[in-house]
Specification:
single chain; 591 residues; mainly alpha; globular
């Protein structure tokens, strides 16, 4: 009923070797989170009691479901958008439109085919959630309701990503607008709740819907928030897919060059030496052609201003909410983190998306093959691409830098004790310098990471997933670490034991992303150092009172972050320059 596109995905997905690795990794992540939460709450040194076990069961169920809904929302939108965008980059989407496939078979087949691996992973996690019933504190109905919330959230996010990819013609625009649309949706929902519409928030917010699933059922005869959320998300999915089916052939093809055969008799007599492809005046190409093309042409789409406009809208909402809470006096010890952290994560994701798609889009379009007949050097290509990506993402890089300066001016980066007011200016200056340096290092890391993965992974979807997934897991993993540390009151008593497996899992994932196909000692060392450095920076801030003399100076966590990430940048950059000819086939490996 869904057509041959979904039928092919249904038959081929379980046969792919990576499918089993994804399922094993997802279950291993849940198991590691469970053990880490148990050790972080002091379970190693306490006798199990019925009440304590039930409370831990509820806590662990909340952690697992919140992590699952976050991952499913992000990867569902990413998978659906990249599936359609890759077809457009390869010019194979036109072949689907020329076939006798119906519009709904193309749209629904692509959507459900891209979500099929995520659905299989969700089915595998259902028994894990059901095992938590043995701890007590939750009921089978709550497990089913929470799982349904996660499932319909993934369906709605995938429908949104697929619709945006059908609308836009570039991979970066599809990925960036999908991520920004999801963040904008949460900002609007939370803003509406703050304005007095909190009673309908569980119908639109998956996190609030999951929290309401753990509450006792109502006896007033009203509809449960979980059922309202399921109805709203299913309605959104139907509407988004209906729009995609309706506008499929109006949006596509878009901007495709249609070449017509010229007749030799009608061809005018022209001077071939002065003829050029584009009309108008001839433009001089700069010293680095790759950099000139990325800056002076429409290499990243015809309307990139739309992505930047949506980004600034989301940025304004986040900054307004964060500064309002900080200036109001609430959350003062971590006032800077509530605005700077989400803006930085969003900017890094967009920079990574631009970096990886700068290579994958050209490979899918066959443009990289032209490098084989040019005299471009490795330095010209690599640094030209990095410079072009940085120039086109400057609007995403500058806001965290400016926001950090605003926080430093307000005295929120480092708030000294009341009996030492003279340290305020110096501590804020040192904290600002450390934050600026960390932002520069992280931006350079995601830039090089995107190009590194795109050059090593031939499949565009896998390259995009690995690059954005690495940035996403580093960010979300750090936030989960902060939450698990705060569960135990910020003490370091159980931290080393509880997070050892979490760090080992992060090391294994980074090693697989960075150097699984061609491992080197430098990349292996980088994979080992990065999770340890991130964990050290988190504990350095949270163990003691932020901004007091109990914490280490800002220079210590900055060096702990800058040295491993700087080593990782060099470990990726040097092989890209030395293996350039072999990677693109200019010379044979034997030579």
């Amino acid at each position: 009923m869904l057509g041959p596109i979904f039928a092919r995905e249904f038959r081929t997905v379980p046969r792919r070797p990576g499918h089993y690795g994804m399922r094993a990794a997802s279950l291993g992540l849940l198991w590691t989170l469970g053990v880490t939460a148990w050790l972080a709450t002091g379970g190693l040194g306490e006798e199990p009691e019925l009440g304590a076990t039930a409370r831990f069961g509820v806590l662990l169920f909340q952690i697992l479901t919140f992590v699952l809904v976050t991952l499913v929302t992000f990867f569902a939108a990413l998978s659906a958008a990249s599936t359609v965008a890759q077809e457009k980059d390869r010019r194979t989407f036109l072949l689907l439109l020329l076939s006798d496939l119906r519009d709904y078979e193309i749209v629904l087949g692509k959507l459900l085919g891209s979500l099929l691996p995520i659905v299989l992973i969700l089915i595998g996690t259902l028994p894990v959630l059901a095992l938590l019933l043995l701890l007590g504190g939750i009921t089978p109905g709550q497990v089913v309701h929470s799982w349904l919330v996660i499932a319909v959230t993934g369906l709605a996010a995938g429908s949104l990503g697929g619709l945006i990819a059908l609308w836009r013609e570039r991979t970066f625009q599809s990925l960036a607008l999908s991520v920004l649309a999801i963040v904008l949706y949460f900002c609007v929902v939370r803003g509406a709740a703050a304005l007095g519409w909190s009673e309908i928030e569980p119908w639109f917010d998956p996190f609030v819907a999951l929290q309401s699933a753990l509450e006792p059922p109502r006896d007033d005869g009203s509809i449960a928030p979980v059922w309202g959320y399921l109805a709203v998300m299913l309605g959104w999915s139907v509407v988004l897919n209906a729009i995609g089916i309706w506008r499929l052939r109006k949006w596509n093809p878009s901007g495709e060059a249609i070449q017509q055969r010229e007749s030799p008799d009608d061809e005018p007599e022209t001077d071939r030496r002065s003829a050029h492809a584009a009309p108008g005046a001839v433009r001089r190409v700069g010293a680095i052609p790759v950099l000139w093309r990325d800056i002076c042409t429409r290499a990243y789409g015809r309307r990139p201003i739309l992505v930047k406009a949506v980004y600034f809208l989301v940025l304004g909402l986040i900054v307004y909410s964060a500064l309002g809470a900080a200036l109001g006096g609430s959350r003062l010890p971590f006032a800077a983190g509530y605005g700077l952290v989400p803006v930085t994560i969003l900017s890094l994701l967009l920079v990574a998306a631009q970096a990886v798609t700068a290579i994958t889009s050209e490979r899918d379009g066959g443009a990289l093959d032209l490098l084989l007949v040019t005299d471009l050097s490795p330095k010209e290509f690599i640094f030209g691409k990095l410079g072009g990506v940085l120039y086109n993402t400057k609007e995403f890089v500058l806001p965290p830098v400016i926001l950090a300066a605003v926080y430093a001016g307000l005295g929120l980066l480092a708030t000294p004790p009341a009996n030492r007011p003279q340290l305020s200016a110096s501590m804020n200056g040192a904290a600002l310098a450390a934050v600026w340096g960390a932002l520069a290092i992280l931006t350079a890391f995601v830039l090089v990471l995107g190009v590194h993965i795109a050059l090593r992974v031939v499949n565009s979807r896998q390259a995009i997933t690995r690059a954005l997934g690495t940035v996403f897991f580093l960010s979300v993993g750090t936030l989960i670490s902060i939450y698990l540390i705060l569960i135990n009151g910020g003490t370091f008593e159980y931290q080393f034991i509880s997070f050892s497996m979490f760090i080992v899992l992060g090391i294994g994932g980074l090693w697989w992303v960075l150097s699984a196909d061609r491992p080197t000692q430098a990349l292996t060392l980088a994979a080992v150092l990065l999770p340890i450095a991130m964990f050290y920076c988190v504990t350095n801030v949270l163990v003691a009172t932020p901004g007091s003399q109990e914490s280490a100076p800002p220079l210590v966590p900055f060096l702990a972050l800058a040295i491993p990430f700087g080593h990782a940048i060099l470990a990726m950059l040097i092989p890209m320059l030395s293996e350039f000819d072999v990677a693109f086939g200019r010379t044979r490996l034997e030579e």
